[in-house]
User: What shape does this take?
Amino acid sequence: MNKLALIAGGLALGSTVTAQEKPNIILILADDLGFSDLGCFGGEIETPVLDHLAAQGIRMTQMYNSARSCPSRANLLTGLYPHQTGLGHMTGSHAKEAKGYAGFRSNSDNVTIAEVLKEAGYFTAMAGKWHLGKVNPVQRGFQEYYGLLGGFNSFWNPKVYTRLPKDRPLHEYAEGEFYATNVITDYAVDFIDQAHNEDKPLFLYLAYNAPHFPLHAPKAMIDKYMKTYLQGWDKIRDQRWKRIVGMNLLQGKPELSPRGVVPGSFFMDEAHPLPAWDSLTKEQQTDLARRMSIYAAMVDIMDTNIGRVVDKLDKNGELDNTFIIFMSDNGACAEWHEFGFDGHSGLAYHTHVGEELDGMGLPGTYHHYGTGWANVCCTPLSLYKHYAYEGGISTPCIAYWGNKVKNKGKIDHQPCQFSDIMPTCVELAETKYPRTYQGREILPTAGTSILPILQGEKLKERYIYAEHEGNRMVRKGDWKLVSAYFKEDKWELYNITKDRTEQNDLSSQYPERVKEMENAYFEWADKSDVMYFPKMWNTYNQGRKKDLKEYKTK
Assistant: This one.
């Protein structure tokens, strides 16, 4: 069943029943998806399946991730802040003596959702991107796995994908038929059937690598979006903003953040403003529109495949007893400048013209869309992936649980965090978060269950934290204290309820609140293995600047 038929009348969400007592639990994670990319969050990309899940569930507008792939995935699966698991940065990036950045710890003081739910009688499976280092999913509680173990990505090349345990059979595809998002879903559907046939509740972690670069999609799907994106990033961003306002997705009377900046990084010594679309050459505009069209096609295809998952649950009579939550691992990716890049190094870029444009996104290519489009994808928020500003850590979040959702279609603005998913799954599975696991003492989870939100209830106010590459924030209630390394680590204070887009810094007006929240941040940092000043990142940064200098001289 295609996704339009699914929504148009092939399926009434919430209509099916199942004899199974414990609910299925499906976590769907997108990769580098921006806050406003989905139709139900203001985007122009066609996402009718997710839009309908949102209409039958709830949209959570203030679910926070940990700003980047590895940290967010560790955060999500363990219910701990990423530094507590060793993934304050990326896998294998830093010295062992920096405990919070030394790499994902296994056989240690953390436990995964899969490990907890497996002991509670669940069939546990994962399809998609792992990106947690040398330990693999089967070693961390998943009984079945297919996907991308590391971060090296291709949507056309089956050789970078792995099936575990190794003795399991592989699907076979004709030459040119393999496309990762489709294939990951093929295995996800298999795993749904396997749990159904074994009469067990299912825990499925469906971690798509879309729409992360390299931007890959079939040509027909790319062509579908070219007319839209030739309008340019300024017009598209304004259109998204108007839809967001019309949907009441933000509280108060927020302002649209100005056209963004290219932050200072190892590719740019100093931050500089993004150019207006009309200031670009026709060739640059066409190349950039093509890049964004590939990205949109990837999101569209992902939505279609989520429809296949929903359809399978419905055919198995299990949809109404399945909890589904959809999120993104971080904000849209602005690496590294307005024109994007081409090639694995991230150092080169090329303006494609003529017949070159038709080949973009096809096998053998490697493109990214750049900061200008990332600014659109994060509309109306500030900054992007890597940063602790709202654009970097805010995920579009949809929670669905059939008829167990009290106010279907509701928009909820309570601040939540990826660490909340562990206790949510524990409550759904009617089990307990362990103090010990296989003889090891386990750190207490940092989160709280979000199930009360589905019943229209309020969560208790608490502190929420983030740190990545020296970008940091602390949130409590309406207030957020945040800083960025390229802004010289200066704390800024925002009332997020009134000013979600972080336009009015109130730090000078409320110095006592700044001090209180700063103290809370450093207390958390002390006990969570967070470095105050990420010297290792600065060293890495300088090395990359050297690489760029050498590249530019070639």
User: Anything to note?
Assistant: The mean pLDDT is 91. Residues 185 and 305 are 6 Å apart (CA to CA). The chain is about 30% helix and 15% strand. The longest helix spans residues 282-315.
